[in-house]
């Protein structure tokens, strides 16, 4: 946790699909981290009486990938298997499903590196029914619901410095130092992390780190455009507004949610994210549709950036691609994708840079912007 590679691993794991009048796209990238600790689950249509329900979740593991991987496989069944969820009390069922899986994993030594050190995972998930969206958050992964390109709802990250979280930590005999639980863990709620859950006179949700999710119910509206679930590797460098405006604008260019999810991840990498990055975009019937005008404008923008990049390289002695980025940034180009800016067009600049320099120099010259 915290170690980085010499250069990022940029290959992506993708997934996508449709069902129940929803479309979804997934992108996940290891990035600069030495290990990929994220996991996800995405399914439109759950069967067993829940054919018109869908479930999506992002898991951001820490101190290893085992807990996030296990939860990605089993959290859904842990929730829908509760009598509360089956009887229609969905909020209580979601809460109990989280607490049940956390209890069960405690007795699974294969998920821990040692008896005194067990990793954990944050979780953000959503059940989408025909009339409601149930969102649960445990940790600092985040869900954002967008209408008309604007965030209308977002979960709050569970950080140790929040007054309610800090009070629980202190009541359990812990402390918050350098914004971390006991100076170590950056999140105050998570599944796993059993070395932070051993205070004997405190209940399951009163420990230094709590497995209890915050659960929200949003009534679906015709103006709902899309829901974003993502780990903090995304939110570290893009705000809720950035992500919503960027996706909103790209949906006018393409209806390929996997492609758009990949663009978000790439943009975050070039904006300086050093973490694993995973995002699920779920679009509703009210999402923007591609238009010829938007697509034509985007093509013109790409050609303008390519032209400027070539001119800058021909008239300047650049050593690194970040120098070229700075030069183009100073041009104040109009019409760049909102929320993404020039970083979302990095691939064009990189391509031109490689074309205009000898192949043997590319590895030396081609470094990531802001790295």
Give a written overview of the molecule.
This protein has 371 residues and is α+β, with helices and mostly antiparallel strands. It has 2 domains: 280 residues, PPM-type phosphatase domain (Phosphatase 2c, domain 1, 4-Layer Sandwich), CATH 3.60.40; 65 residues, Orthogonal Bundle (Arc Repressor Mutant, subunit A), CATH 1.10.10. Helix content is 34%, strand content 27%. The chain contains 11 helices and 16 strands. The strands form 4 sheets. A 6-stranded antiparallel beta sheet has the order 1-2-16-15-9-10. Strands 3, 4, 7, 8, 13 and 14 form a 6-stranded antiparallel beta sheet that branches. The chain has a two-stranded antiparallel ribbon with strand order 5-6. Strand 1 and strand 2 form a beta hairpin. About 2% of the residues have low confidence. Its cofactor is Mn(2+); Mg(2+). Belongs to the PP2C family.
Which helices and strands occur, and which strands form pairs?
Blueprint: E1 4-19, E2 22-33, E3 38-44, E4 54-62, H1 66-80, H2 83-86, H3 90-106, E5 112-114, E6 117-118, E7 120-128, E8 132-138, E9 142-147, E10 150-154, H4 163-171, E11 176-177, E12 180-181, E13 191-192, E14 214-219, E15 224-230, H5 232-235, H6 240-251, H7 257-271, E16 277-283, H8 292-315, H9 321-329, H10 346-355, H11 359-365
Helix pairs in contact: 1-3, 6-7, 8-10
Keywords: Cytoplasm, Hydrolase, Lipoprotein, Magnesium, Manganese, Membrane, Metal-binding, Myristate, Phosphoprotein, Protein phosphatase
Organism: Stomoxys calcitrans (Stable fly)
Protein name: PPM-type phosphatase domain-containing protein
